[in-house]
Write a structure and sequence with these properties.
Chains A, B, C, D: Belongs to the ThiG family. The structure is a homotetramer. Chain A contains 10 helices and 10 strands. By secondary structure, the first copy, chain A, is of the alpha/beta class. In chain A, helix 1 packs parallel to helix 9.
């Protein structure tokens, strides 16, 4: 049962599951989890890339011939830092793809709308393929699209919370009006959350904590793989309508049937 | 990635997805949807079984060599009718497995606790393998287990509503204390609902409307197959904890790193 | 702004808030909380009533000239024990009103459907005004009504959980089809939960833990009083419809207006 | 039972319920609903104010000696239009208080983060008391506070949707870190929604559709008045904790007690 492929910036991706590389207990576990998940696009923080060309233990386990890298700017606090980080990442990793994350507040890691839009405009000019991580803010997502973002990455719930699609009412609007792919990016804590995101028409999801912090990250990677496929297939198959009226379809009692036997 | 098999009454089932046979547009569509879903256990209403040994159009499409039949008593209004229907089903279909459904009210099709417990006791005595469909009532589920039910089938939401796991708080108690398999039976409207049921530790789910009433029932059958596998695998892999505190794990700002480059 | 009164078994009650008497730090705090809540109907466990005619410290604070007592059978495990407890309560407290609670399981305190229906039938015969505490089970509530219950008391969430209206989908059905008052009885943790119960058409709510375990039980009693009045008034005023389409009503831009100034 | 007063920009408000003036069937109904609600702060769109000093039918019913006016810029699409509208409102209505609303999209009326921050900075310089309507975006709310906003007005759900506190996870963060009052501004559809907003620590709520579109707007205004008082009182009284473990506090069975009687 095939589903339609995802295309971002002209690149076709078979998997609609993007993975983060943080919080794994070891590079080997990360590597196996990535393989089990079927992910093709993998994000990593610039601070994990050593500027001498080396990497930390975990990153050295990442077979860059198998995955498309999506460096992220996690840890930067404004557009200026983001642009510097982006240039360093492009040089060090040889890719112009960038997950743009700007969060001035280290406590909740919430994204900064204003700086993100500014940075997106500049980075697009500089030739980056920009995927900005933002609030589930429909106006901002539209502005990012107009600024040339290759996709938008609205959050589902506070990062690391595993709460799921808390922003559903806004994601629906974003999905309805977006002309670039919509990737739900934070707070997805279970395979069913990922499936629900795809079911509502999101183009992809990015997952990290829920897999890395699972008791068995490799099995959880495989579970998310299946869930994302299930959700997309469900979306394409056309979900049946919900009913809040509480009335079931009446069936005729078996009484007369039983009496006639 | 293998998950543990489900065993009901000594029978091992590879699939944790059970399917209904109502509401399909044709027998051919039903047949293909069943195949795509990977279901092994299939339920059908007794009233669809002709007592002359024949069947209606849809039932005649069901290859009974491929599926384990789970006749249900949908349409009966009390224990007495249920027992009569059960005996007829056993004779007509050659199986002692039974999904016991008793709903005196034709409007909401809500199950009757009292009659269901009475009928379960009698049917167990008569040698049936009884899977009763009931409210998500922890005390009743325990009583049914003590009465010899082979599994319990609490509902997730009103039948046909597609609302999902509305009874979650009670299903958690039922799952925690049950010694027989727990099969969530009504109201599951999307693949993600099914995944969520398995993630919380339900042993299986029964789905009908969500697949039969989908725009593409065959693809939806396949979507539910994946979702159920995803949910079970996620459950076995050990979900990461939810956080409602709203605080992310702090990361060190990139500022000093960027300054040092 | 007056709302319609509640009538149970021919008795008119001005307040739609019923209170429990458990878990208070002292009799004085309980007494003040009751006064602040405006409750008229107050429930207490039989085990707190001394059979020598005396009471424990807390119960002795209860001015029985101000409140209508609703003794409950909390702690009994079956119909037989419930009937014995009911008779003792009637004798000790001089009222034939009874909140019938039967929970065989001391861990979750979930009600027993079968024993509750049996006891209701017998207690009605014996002249009691029976208000049974049950699952949000629409068929059972109808059976209790037919058995002569003066009201039904379906639970909103597991007792003591403070989770709110987890059983909403089923309460809606119960309210739609009940001819006796529907009192939501467990799990209401905040004033807004109580307001929501009344808004959906419940006739009253019973609250205990949420008030008794608040930092300031007296103020919380007053808060629940207001919330219950708000919810009932909102119900009678006719709530505006929800919209899930996400589209606001378009307004004409001010642009031309501003240009014309 | 008194609750603490709300202070915005040095002005003490007795009521934590702010009302809009749109969608009423007549000026008389609006006027009565305002009175019943106890609101002191009332918002109205600039476009309803005639520049010749007159007003439309509805606005002429508004007794400006009783209410503090909060003109809003509904209908403007960017900061430039907002500033022009603000100046006109100040001149026409004689108040420097302003609810800043900028929504470029006429379909969903979602606020524009970037233009709202720009306009806030400029309007504060010009001596306005600015209350900006924004997404439930914690970073943006902090930036608005730093820009001199007198309060922040994050939305609860899409405007006019009556869905309630869909943004709860983000509102909690905003409330935790804000040093100016937090007023929840859109999507509150029932008295219980308003109560829940206050219970979680919001300083006030703004309601329009839910009252104006009720079957009986005057009674609904009174219902919201009670609900807001209930929610605030509940917040100050200290809500009891929720439990998701499902276990009730065990009670000792009455069995031995009954046996001993």
């Amino acid at each position: 049962m095939k589903t339609s492929p995802l295309v971002i910036a002209g690149v076709t991706l078979r998997s609609r599951l993007f993975l983060g590389t943080g919080k794994y207990s070891s590079g080997a576990v990360m590597s196996e989890s990535l393989a089990a998940s079927g992910a093709e696009l993998v994000t990593m923080a610039l601070r994990r890339v050593r500027t001498d060309g080396g990497h930390d233990d975990i990153m050295s386990q990442l077979d860059t011939t198998k995955y498309r890298l999506l460096p992220n700017t996690s840890g930067v606090r404004d557009a200026k830092e983001a642009i510097l980080a982006a240039e360093l990442a492009r040089e060090a990793l040889g890719t112009n793809w960038l997950k743009l994350e700007i969060h001035p507040d280290p406590k909740y890691l919430m994204p900064d709308a204003i700086e993100t839009l500014l940075a997106t405009r500049e980075l697009v000019k500089r030739g980056f393929v920009v995927l900005p991580y933002v609030h589930a803010d429909p106006v901002l997502c539209k502005q990012l699209e107009e600024a040339g973002a290759a996709a938008v990455m609205p959050l589902g719930a506070p990062i690391g919370s595993n709460l799921g699609l808390e922003t559903r009412a806004f994601l629906e609007i974003i999905i309805a009006q977006s002309r670039v792919p919509v990737v739900i990016d934070a707070g997805l804590g279970t395979p069913s959350h990922a499936a629900a995101a795809l079911e509502m028409g999101a183009d992809a999801v990015l997952v990290n904590t829920a897999i890395a912090a699972a008791a068995d990250p490799v099995a959880m990677g495989a579970a998310f793989k299946l869930a994302v496929e299930a959700g997309r297939l469900g979306f394409e198959a056309g979900l049946a309508a919900r009913s809040t009226k509480g009335e079931a379809h009446a069936t005729s009692p078996l009484t007369s049937f039983l009496a006639s036997v």
